[in-house]
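### Sample
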Amino acid sequence: MSGYEVEIIKPEEKDRLIDEEYRENFSYGRKANLSGMCIKLLTNVEEFKEMWEDNFKSMNEDVRPHGRIFALKTGREETQVLYEPVSKTCFLLDCDYYGYVKSLALAVSGDFLEEYHSIHSRYSVHGAAVDYKGVGTAIIAPSGVGKTTQAYGLILEEDVRLIADDWFYTIIVGNGLDVQASEKNCYIRVDIASDIEEYKELLKGVSLDSYGRAVTNVRRVLGEAAMKENTTLRNVIHLKRDPEDDRILRKVETDEAMRYILKNNFCNPHRLITDSRKRKLRKEFFEKLYERTTVYMVNTTATIQENLEQIKDIALER
């Protein structure tokens, strides 16, 4: 779960904060290209600016932002998140964790996409995705259950490429689903190397933040082919941790998958607006997602390696 609560503010309050209270606080401004959307970071924290540049693809400065995130140190002790939904403007105040900067930027883009409908509508999903010979598999689960670890285990296999380790976008095309990457490089935790030994080399010479994480390029260890921009989604894997269930892997139907995703708040702790209208939009999207894919449930009470072998059977179509 996220360690903050979101306070919705009115456009007038947003204008006041920008024009009066924080107008001297914008030391750096950078635009990111998130699947064609322009999200702009304004910050007075140099580390945030540098990690943002490493994390996301840059956007041409001539493009007007679809959303903004102001990540500012103001001298207060507690972190505060404010969001003005009309202009898609988010304030992250007095936070020293880049993970929130990244996640809130992606949440702003997700909110924009939910309000922008066309024949090529895109949707934002908090989850991991990999490609194997043109076939995509998504791992969607609550934080802390192991989706990122499993995704990194998968891409050690030949012909498996990482699309996203934390967040991706989808486009519904007829009866199919195209999945697109959200990030250029990944913000990973240092203890991934204790779970998967092959990644020890990845963290050599990398500067970690105070949370033991770093934005790093997995291509350094696994080669340029380790990551891919998009894939066609065929499989969805949900993870749960239930010691009373002795089944490790099984297929599930749409109604059970819907109960899972609703019970777990769409497996996304970084939703800026959570009213009934937004819940309806997200519910309708996941129904479409499940209707177009084969859905599995993996119980993660086994070892990481045992679970990985089950997930390989799905992703590698063994």
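The two ends are 34 Å apart (CA to CA). This sample (Aldolase) is used throughout the tutorial notebook.
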